[in-house]
Amino acid sequence: MSNLAQKFRDRRILNRLKNRDKEAFIRVYDQNVKDIYRFVYFKISNREEANDLTSMIFLKTWNHIQNKTLEDAKTLRALLYKIARNSIIDYYRENNGKKFTSLDDQDNKLEIIDESQNTPEDLDKETNLNLIKSKLPLLKDEYLEVIIMRFINDLSLEEIADISGKNRGNVRVLLHRALNALRELIEKEQGSNNE
Amino acid sequence: MDNRELIAKLNNLKSMNPDSAWLANNRELLLSQISNSGAENISAWKAVLINFSSVARIASRPVFSLGVFILLLLFGSFFGRSLFLNAKPNDSLYIAKIISEKLKVNTTFNTQERDKLALQFATEHAQAITSVLSDPTFNNEANKDQVARLNDNFKEEVATVQNKFNKLDASKKMTRPSTANPKLNSDFALIDDNVVIADSARDKQGIQLIDSAANQIKVEVLESTKASSALSSLTAKEAKINLASSTGNIASSSESAPEVNKNGASQILDEAQKLFDQKDYSQASKKLKEVEEIIK
């Protein structure tokens, strides 16, 4: 039932966007901007570029809908991610494949939301998160993508399959391999720190 | 660190958000950009219309699919066969004819009607095969494989006709005892039984004859019961035997017709098969027409 309601909401917002409804676009933006930003940011590892690309992705989506080429994605969210993937590919192409290898620069230190409770556990958590963050760009592109979509942005397997053009089983396998690869990188880092 | 722990940590990366000032500025910027490309606030009635069409589109999907499926089923079962009626076994459309026939057979719920339909279709298939094979432009060396396949198909169709005949005959025999329940304990019960049999044969043999036969039996039985004190037990038994034999005659006369049909059809089918084996296709076709007449 909730699935049907979600489909209805999606369909309604798509119809409103097709009718050039400004309000619908703002709603789509508010609902998805953070997720799309995170997706772009973890992929290109640069805050400024991520800002620009995110903005461009929403504009491209708007144009895509107006040009009536919407039916190639099952949901609006899937469409946004598809456009985001293509925009990132274009971005790499324009920059001759240049990629920032670490998210762990001075500007991008991860902040724990509740700063009033800086207990040793929080500090440990922050260190762990920064370690994960630093290892994410070292993963293969397809591993990184599925990890962001599934475990950071909470997309369903169906949505990931739709976005990446794979079937559910392949996505599941890819997720498993991606997690193992990330865990190995982290454990390797922790091992060398302990030595 | 196991996968579960890692996933929990990855979940915490949700806290990685864009700058709120950038978010607000970018929102305004995008709004102005899309306004330039014709975006506007839609009117209330248009919003209602969009909501309605969205609901209709979502709701229509399963209903629509089901509707189309039912329509196709009905269309296929009623008109599908007539569309491909002239398709021959060597045509590419013949498979469509077979499918539509199967659809029609499977959507017939009365078992006897279904068997009859299957019997009719199998006979028609066999006839179609003979007509195709009687054509010398088709039945030659070039189409050797197809001819061999059609020969096999003919045998299968004839076997199907035979099976369906047997099945129909068996089902007729199954229904017969339930209508003519043998209540042979008393003489009056025997009379009732005869009347039932006579009723069932009324269309064929005429009401006058059957009624008179029943009356005759009734009189005989009444006389035998009235005179039971005077007559010896032996004569009473004789009367009973006479009565039983007369009812037996009536019953056997009504039962013999389908038996003849079944045996006749079986014999004709055998002959058709022999003629087909001798490559006398026109005669085989005639025999199959006879079988078709019996079915009708």
Describe this structure in words.
The complex is a heterodimer of chains A (195) and B (296). By secondary structure, chain A is mainly α. The radius of gyration of chain A is 18 Å and the shape is globular. Helix content of chain A is 73%, strand content 0%. In chain A, helix 1 (2-18) crosses helix 2, helix 2 crosses helix 4 and helix 3 (47-66) packs across helix 4 (76-94). Chain A has helices at 2-18, 22-44, 47-66, 76-94, 120-135, 141-152, 157-164, 168-194. Chain B is mainly α. In chain B, 79% of the residues lie in helices and 0% in strands. Chain B has helices at residues 3-11, 20-36, 44-78, 80-83, 94-106, 111-133, 144-179, 187-200, 202-205, 207-226, 233-277, 281-295. The radius of gyration of chain B is 38 Å and the shape is elongated. The chains are: A mainly alpha (195), B mainly alpha (296).
What's the SSE blueprint?
The complex is a heterodimer of chains A (195) and B (296).
Chain A: H1 2-18, H2 22-44, H3 47-66, H4 76-94, H5 120-135, H6 141-152, H7 157-164, H8 168-194
Helix pairs in contact in A: 1-2, 2-3, 2-4, 2-6, 3-4, 4-7, 6-8, 7-8
Chain B: H1 3-11, H2 20-36, H3 44-78, H4 80-83, H5 94-106, H6 111-133, H7 144-179, H8 187-200, H9 202-205, H10 207-226, H11 233-277, H12 281-295
